[in-house]
Amino acid sequence: MTHDELEVELRKLDPRERARLAAALLNSLEELSEDENARLWAEEAERRHDDLLADQTLGRSATDVFREIRERLGG
Known about the structure:
extended; single chain; mainly alpha; 2 domains
């Protein structure tokens, strides 16, 4: 079963069961060693970097993001 197929099936669970499963999965991440945790963060950073390089439109400056937020909040 692929990740996407698994996600589709898990979304069919009742909200309480999904919450219980989410909590269990989050708790399992706390059991990672420091080395494992660092490796996973490095892989995620590399993936995000590659995504940004593949499509430059995904990146936005913090200045633009904060300006948009202020406009939405009416300030």
